Amino acid sequence: MGIGELDREAHVAEASGAAAPRTLAEALRARGDEGLAALLRARPDLLGPVPNDLTQLATRAGTRGSVIRAIERLDRFALQTAEALAVGPDPTPYPVLLGLLAGDEGDPEIEAALPGAVALLREQALVWGEDERLRLVRTARELLAPSAQHPSPTGLGPTVAEATSGMSPGRVQEIIAAAGLTPTHDPVSAVAALTELFTDRTRMGELLDTAPSEALAVLDRLVWGPPYGEVTANPAPPVRWLRDRGLLLPVSARTMVLPREVALHLRGGRAHRTPDPVAPEPVVRRDYRPQVVDSAAAGQAYVALATVEELLKSWDRGGPPVLRAGGLAVRDLKRIAAALDVSEQIACFWLELAYGAGLLASDGEADERYAPTPAYDDWLDLPPAERWARLVTPWLDATRTPGLVGGQDAKGRTLSALGPDLDRSAAPEVRHRILFLLATLPPGSAADPESLLARLRWERPLRGAEGSASAGAATVRFRIASWTLEEAELLGLTGRGALSGPARALLNLPLAEAATAAEPGGGVELSVAATRAATLLAPLLPEAVDHVLLQADLTAVAPGPLRRPLADALGVLADVESKGGATVYRFTPGSVRRALDSGRTATDLHEFLAKHSTTPVPQPLAYLVDDVARRHGHLKVGAASAYVRCDDDTVLGEILADRRSAPLGLRRLAPTVLAAQTDPVSLLDGLRALGYAPAAESAEGDVLIARADAYRTPARTAPVPVPDGPPSPDDTLLTAAVRAIRAGDRAATAVRKEPSTPTAAGALPRTSAAETLATVQAAAMTGSAVWIGYVNAEGAASQRVIAPVRVEGGFVTGYDHTADEVRTYPLHRITGVAELADDQV
């Protein structure tokens, strides 16, 4: 029977004559170092701080919080195994446990899966003991055993002994007499006789054969739970028949319960109605050629880059304000969704993606608002594939969950995009698990989403988003799984629902498409895997072009993604009219004026258009540029508060005569100068609204160049994911922790010689200063170890086993087996010394 490495170690110990463990601490003591490391790896909360010895480790492993956390991480069959142990006898022999899960008829799948489930429970110290005496740790039994306050998923009720604990002895005798049993002299033997009857398949069958059909119908309603039923003060005859024979037992004046032994007989010995020994496999919904999947994923990856860039470019002058409670206002979210032409939920995803990648943050000013960070400019300078990797890498481990936006927190407040309370610590685990499940399918195969959710439910039936066993929290976990599928498609990790080659490389999977980017079975850093994924994605992305097609209707068509300098320049000179495989730009007087405001001249614009167009520059576009340039800068606006200067005094006269200029508060200071009562920016906007094209000038009279990309937040770090409990320890920490626990355990369990003066159990040894000095000097000369009592400077007392190597100047230096290192102790702080027994030296 393959029951795992830990069980083989236990059998080896038994074969060598070792006694069966009587406690969990003894069971842990019998493990090898690999077994202890496996326990600490599976339950990292046991390492905070590192236990002093194995007794303390066993105690900590049995605490309620640690046991709850371990149980919540069990798969469905391991959990069902633990639940079966909780309703079985204590201890439970392995054949009895198998019967509780497989029933009287047996089940080959359960028989094959049960050894692995028991080995898993043993590894995590939830179960200990040999197969003949399997014991569920006491805390786990209390959590999983059925009770009126906490029903068990098994649907079983209390045992006969538990249900009759408060019953009068006379009533118990009446029950066994009605059941056809011989009366006894005490209630204990009577309960034992009734229990024996209910667990005897033959005799129990004969008893039920005499039951009225209506009574059997009552049992059928209770057999799979809940086992409790309400009755009236005068029960119906079928209920009375069952009650008189103990097949139903009273728990209160109006409530009856079906005893556990009766239910197990009616169930054919099964503790669960539907045991699930085998994990459901993901179902293939449709197959595609891997090349089709990669092409679709690459196209979506390019859209993701363009969307993030468009979003942050629209906030180049500063984004919307930050709410007082944090986050983005609903109206601003609606505006962003409309600008990106996506739903509000998708807009939340893009916002949170940029925020998680460190490209977006609040500026921290008094009137706080959102804006791109300096990291955004560095991101723009990267090749497209590397920019994609910079987005998906933090997404994998992010705990912020944009799908929650619009919902409510625990206090009933609405959750906002970029706001607080969006972290869900289970999100990274769910994302990784969904992608790995997709990777188990053949390349190009898209999975049925419901089959993926079914697999998650089997793997973590109790695990919720916040580590809770509640159904609501578990529902959030499965919602995160659904959002992961959508977000992976938006990012280009999947194409048409199938995992792409670059995504396989990102996960370091040695499959066909990622064979050149991932070492089979090797674990690499996420940054290295991201670089490999970018290498695979780069040739799949559309190649950037350096030209456009100018058309007579004042539009330009970009036949593909434009190179960065061309895209930036054209984005200033024209407005984007439509996006897709080919982007359409439209030239307007406002867009041309924007280019002139940025410092370009009409000649520069003509040269730019001629250089980057594969078609001749249309005459209407040339006229538009010349017409706007001729009027641009004809007026000069400066600070008086503000002024307007123009060499043509008739133009200034027209402005003064226009009634629409009244709000600007203009008055003539000289034939070519008007003063205004408003600031220069408002004056510029007002004159442009009147149809003029003024230019701003400095105090020296130079034309000011307006740049749209001047505003950035101070340097900001990306949000740190909220950990889901203690981090998983690495091999170095595990090795050190196991050594420390072993050393402490050797010191705690070391056998020492009896002192000449008897001491209380657990008390520090007491010897005179002369005896202490003589003993440690002798130990240093012979190289033997001694047991000492030590009180540190804070007054804390401890017992230690040391091997002295040097005694001088009032100090003893030696190897401390308890701390597993060389230490020095002042002799005056040693309370006493005792020699170890000969077999411990």
Fill in the keyword field for this structure.
alpha+beta, 5-stranded antiparallel sheet
- Strand arrangement, largest sheet? 18-19-17-16-20
Q: Which spans have pLDDT < 50 for at least 5 consecutive residues?
A: 1-17, 464-473, 511-523, 756-761
Distance between the termini: 39 Å
Mean pLDDT: 85
Number of helices: 34
> What is the oligomer described by this structure?
single chain
In what range is the share of β-strand residues? 5-15%
Count of DSSP strands: 25
Question: Rg to the nearest angstrom?
Answer: 39 Å
Helix content bin: 40-55%
Global morphology: elongated
Overall structural class, as computed from helix and strand content, comes to alpha+beta
Question: Sheet with the most strands?
Answer: 5 strands, mixed
Give a written overview of the molecule.
GO terms for molecular function: helicase activity. This is Helicase C-terminal domain-containing protein. By secondary structure, this protein is of the alpha+beta class. It is 45% helix and 12% strand. It has a five-stranded mixed β-sheet with strand order 18-19-17-16-20, with helices on one face. It has a five-stranded antiparallel β-sheet with strand order 24-23-22-21-25. The longest helix has 24 residues, at 290-313. Mean pLDDT is 85; it is low at 1-17, 464-473, 511-523 and 756-761.
